[in-house]
Description:
This protein is mainly α.
Amino acid sequence: MLQKSALGKALHYLDGQWQRLRCFLDDGRITLDNNPAENAIRPFVVGRKNWLFSHTPSGAHGSAAIYSLMETAKGNGLSPYDDLQFVFETLPILG
């Protein structure tokens, strides 16, 4: 079979990923796909589209920071509202 054929490319790729495939086969806790990871980052993609309409770069950075806090809280099973409330109550007041 030719290495440049579709099957040849697939087999070459498989050979390069063999160690990872073995890891997956040896440990049943490892998932076959990365859907949970893809779903976890989806809100950031939506947020990135919204940041395009920020009036200033610092506004976009601020939005991204708050969005990151919220998604991290959700990802760790915490309440984003409680997390934000804690942050705002403990932040020093800038004057």
